[in-house]
Structure formats: C-alpha cells, structure tokens
Amino acid sequence: MNIQLDEDILRHIRSFLSPETLLTTSTVHRVFYDGWIKERYKEVKFTRGDKESKRLWGHVQENQLIADVVKCVHIKPWHVKPKTHTYQSRTENALNRVAMLFNPDYTKSQARKRFEKRLEKDINRVHTLIATLTDVREYRIEWDESPKYHNRLFLSFLQPALQSWHATLTRLSIHAPLDLLKTFVTVRLPTTHPHSHLPQLGPIEPKTNRHSPGRVLGVLTQPQRHLDLNLYPNDTPSSENLDLSRFFQYLGDFPHLRALSLSIPFDGAQLSLNPQMFSRFVLKHRATLESLSLKTTRCAVHSERVAPECINWIQTILSSIRPSPGVGGGVNGVNGLPELQHVAVALRPLKAPLQIVSNFLAYHSPSLKSITLMDRALDLTDVCTVLPAFSNSGLAQFVSMPLRSLEMRIDALSPHFLSLMARRLPGVQSLKLELVDRTQMAGYIRNSRRFVQDLDALGFDGANWDLRRLVMSPGVGGSWINAFEDILVPRIPGLEAIEELAP
Known about the structure:
single chain, alpha/beta, 5-stranded parallel beta sheet, about 40% helix
C-alpha cells in the first residue's frame, strides 16, 4: 500500500536531515531534491578559472532554480593563464617563421591576443553570473595581496556586483587594492548589516597616500551603524605608509552611525598629518554615536622618521572631543558626545599623564555604561586618578553614574580597590581585571585571613554591590580564583563564582 505524505510533513522531516542525507534522498521526492539544491548552492565559491569552476558556473547560469537559491558569493580573484599554444604542423611553423621575419614580436603578440581573449571570456562569465543571481545576501572578495592582479577582471567583481545586488545585500566584506576602491564610491547598500566589514586596504606605495588626498573619497556610502578600521602592519607591512588623516577628512556622513572603532600602531604614524581629522569625523556623528574605541597594535618599521608628538594621538583626540577645563571649546566649538555609552581606550604612551583620559570620562560619566582601559597596568593611585568615581573631588556628581561594566589592567586586587569599587561604583555588574603583580597577589593568597581583616577594617559592604560577574587572572593553577571565591562569593549576593580571564 502506497502512503502519500503531505509535502508540509516532508519539509518538516527535511529540516532534520544533514547535507549528506539530503544528497542521498534527493531522488526520492522533489521536496528533498529542493532541499539538497538549497544546501548545495546556498554558498558558491569562485577561486579559479579552471574546469571545476566553469562547471559550477554552468550549473548556476543555466539553471534558474539553482541561481535563485544562491545566498552567498565568495570570490578569490585568480590569475588568467591561457594555455600555451604549440604549433605541430610544418606548415604552421613555416608560416610563423615567415611572420617573424616581418614582425620579430609576432609570437608575443599572438600570446597577448590569447590572453586578452581568455580575459574577456572570464569577464563576460562574471557579468553573466552577476546578472543571473537575484537574491544574494552576502558577498565576499578575498584578495591574496598579489601585485599581479588583473585590473579589468578585478573591476568586474566590484561595482557591477554591488549595483546588481544593492537591494538584497546584508553582509559585505571586501579586500581589494586601494586603487580600485574608488570604482564603487557611488554605490548605496540600504540593507547592509550593521556589522559589515570596511573594505580592507591593500598594499600602498610610500608616496601614494602622502600626495593623493582624495584616493578613498566616499568609499562607504551605505548607512553603517558600526565602523571598524583596524591596521596590523605586521600582517600587511605596506599599511605602514597609509595616513588615515586624509581618509577621515574626505569620508562622508553616516546618519545611523552608532559605534566607531579605530585600531592603529601605538606610535600614531597613521595619523601623523592631523589627528584632529578623526576628531572632526567623530563630532560630526555626536548626535548618534554610542560607542567609541581607540585601540593600539604593534609598531612597524617606518621608511621615514615619525614625529615624536604623534605618539600622543589618543590624548590629542580625546582632548579635541572634550578638552581639559579652561582650555576652551572642542573641535568646531562642539564639546562631547551626548549619547556615548561605551568607551574603550588604550592608555598609551604607558607613562603619559592620565588627566586627559580622566577629564574625558568625567564629562561623559552621566551616560557611560561601560569603560575599558587597555595596555597600561594601573596601581591604586592611577585608578583613583583615571576613574572619576574614585576621585575625591566632585564625588556627588558621579555616585549615580550608570556604569555597569568595567574592564582594565591593575597591579593587584587589593582590599582598598575592592572597598572603593563597592562604595563608589555599587551599580557595576561586570568587572574584568587583568592582574599583573604576581608577588603582591601571592602575598594576599598566603595571608588571606589578614586580607579579610583589612576588608572589614575598610568597611567593605558587598551586600549593596550589584556585582554579578567577576573575571580575573587565574594565577598558578587557578589559586587566585579559588582564594578570592572563598572571600568574595559569601559577601556579594549576586556573585556565584569567579571566571578565569582568557589569555
């Protein structure tokens, strides 16, 4: 007896099947076949111009059912290498020798023609593919930074694709040579996901960025909400020659920008022309900006001498956004970021005064919900200097600050630090600490009874502290965590355990 199952039931069964099982059941019923097609072709990768890639292109271009299910396109630009043509017959060889008598470069010209023919074929194939796909949600271009890329082929991946898929793209990741980024400056991507990546900049010659101010004008025009720009010169050595001052000078407005992150080598060479260009870009978005991150990476060797004052780029930016008292207005007479809730700042240079960072945090403290201080290990005096709530001046202004998360590097988890945290920042729910003074911490662990007595003597009140998550360096064999769990968990109602800080 044949039993006909409803297609809705079969679709429900299909949702539990692995891709391998869908392949084996694709011949049983159309529902399973459609499921296998969707799984097989939801992401297509084109990395070479060989027979395998051509076969995949043929499947996508010749079958609209397949083209309609492609959601992600991943392209790795390839080198066009036409087959070397060898002449076998005596007649062909004789004709070639005669032709070379009149044109010594005859064989080279023939090779160029074969190359152009193959390049044109690949470009047409790319254009046809782009026109065939109708519902691409994610697009990735991954360039291997080889300087021998084919300009025309690379261009066929850029603006035609973005113009064709602009209405459906939700994620975009592009790694392309800097010279080609200007080709799609007019493309708008209204549905791009907030976490889409900035175009990554490829190798840059030392003179390129210094004398070409408009090279990256308007690279991004989609309504970004998160803008991350990270440079790692050790991974891409040529980035050492890129000055981002011009980038931010010509970068347009982003009406929906919520988060901005900048990570460059700590010597500030990438903002050597004018760090305030970045400050002006920040203040243009003061009405919407909720998160600001200024991080540092390792330095690279520079071909030119970097001005000594560049190392203070973070202080320059922070003072431009919110200057020290008595200095006057910020950039363009505008002070502060009224919507700022999350701040992450690298405390560089390591021996720089902390007052500028403290003034910035103090001004924005009424709205700040999380603070992350990186790179520099702080002792208790430094903590009291940089955190407004720990300062004795104007304490009443900061008691009610909405800070909920705090992350930083400190020398040790001392009784004085814990007492100040519970008394001055009772609303903090998440505390993440990297502890660097092993000798001092080992002393606390050996004399845990004295540590508890000092806590009680300082009037530590964990009952009114909202702390729910404490992440800290574990110590040898987790000894620091074990000791402080015994001390703090019974005294802080919302704290159930202490988590280990990831290396």
